[in-house]
Amino acid sequence: MARDNYFNKGDAFSEFHRSRKEKIASIDIDMPTPVCKNCYEPLALFETVFDKGQTYKNTTFIQKLARKSQLPAFLIYYKVKTDNQTIDYFRITQLQPDQTDEHLLTPEVFTKFLVLLQEEHRKNCEKE
């Protein structure tokens, strides 16, 4: 998480840790973590970033968390349409367990990917 909030005030907790003279380090996890609907097992980790044409985002933390949790991790750049309300596309790179090339996905294809994570987990889900 950035030391300074560049656009507007964050939530109370974010502002609390940023304002400490002790410079408390904290990193947020960007996207709600997809989980199994039955057992609530986490399925993947995501680092998201608004797509402004950039080609780099630091992913050290999410990769470390993915290795420790043995979950796949992904870097997701998202581009919004001119209405600033809907997603135009996603640029996605798998970071863990193996890094892949970037893929351009429509919102519909990204949704199918999220459903596939659920379906793959259900094959071994303890509550299924």
Spatial order of the strands in the main sheet? Answer: 1-2-3-4
Computed Rg = 16 Å
Could you tell me the number of beta strands?
4
Tell me about the largest β-sheet.
4 strands, mixed
- Helix and strand content put the structural class at alpha+beta
The overall average pLDDT, rounded, is 87
Helix content: 25-40%
Low-confidence stretches: none
Overall body shape: globular
State the distance separating the first and last CA atoms. 36 Å
Keywords:
single chain, 128 residues, alpha+beta, 4-stranded mixed sheet, 21% strand
Mind explaining what this structure looks like?
By secondary structure, this protein is of the alpha+beta class. It folds into 2 domains: 1-28, no CATH class; 31-122, no CATH class. The chain contains 3 helices and 4 strands. It has helices at 12-19, 60-69, 107-122, and strands at residues 45-50, 73-80, 87-96, 103-105. The chain has a 4-stranded mixed beta sheet with strand order 1-2-3-4. Strand 2 and strand 3 form a beta hairpin. The longest helix has 16 residues, at 107-122. The model has no long low-confidence stretch (mean pLDDT 87).
